[in-house]
């Protein structure tokens, strides 16, 4: 996955800017943790500025894009965290578990190094709410293949709280289903570069062409127009919190 993000990461920091509303939910879940390990940290999105954060990231390109004042980053992988037991008050991971070579091992490692809690933003692969799947059904197959089922978190972390994280209509973070109320965005190749899902799938041209035709001809609005009146949408993102 490091090699993939060494390519995707060429413009990642501009495409994936943290959304303040999602950040607030993550920070609240971290409680009073003072030291935090961010696993699969990327360019540093959602790292709380008022805590002692250590970032772990496998991609050199992503590390290079971290801001000069960002938390220190260590290059490494989730399944072999280079830290001692109980080194941090909390461990966090944001939309990254599905990229790990062994998610179960990575979750066990997070539990090993965290003293108090673990906070993970992930996606429920059983959720099929997004209208985009009607045009690109292969995305659902990919989600199911790469996303750990929600039961995996309790299996590896113990008791967990799971909360839905609705996506704001003007979400600044360009993850896969962020543009649910801005359908035209999916036709922009640059926007699609912000999500690894579009890099992993071939043969999306027909679905994107149908989307473009439906947007032009009014069929999209006739079928999905009710979402245009919503300010947020449950696309399937979930916040998992384990208190250790």
TrEMBL record:
Ranges annotated as spanning the membrane: none
Keyword Methyltransferase set for record: yes
UniProt record, GO biological process: methylation
InterPro entries: Methyltransf_11 (IPR013216), SAM-dependent_MTases_sf (IPR029063)
CDD domains with a match to the protein in the record: AdoMet_MTases (cd02440)
Keywords linked to the UniProt accession: Methyltransferase, Transferase
Methyltransferase type domain sequence ranges: 37-115
Identification of the protein by name: Methyltransferase domain-containing protein
High-level lineage: Bacteria, Pseudomonadati, Pseudomonadota, Alphaproteobacteria, Sphingomonadales
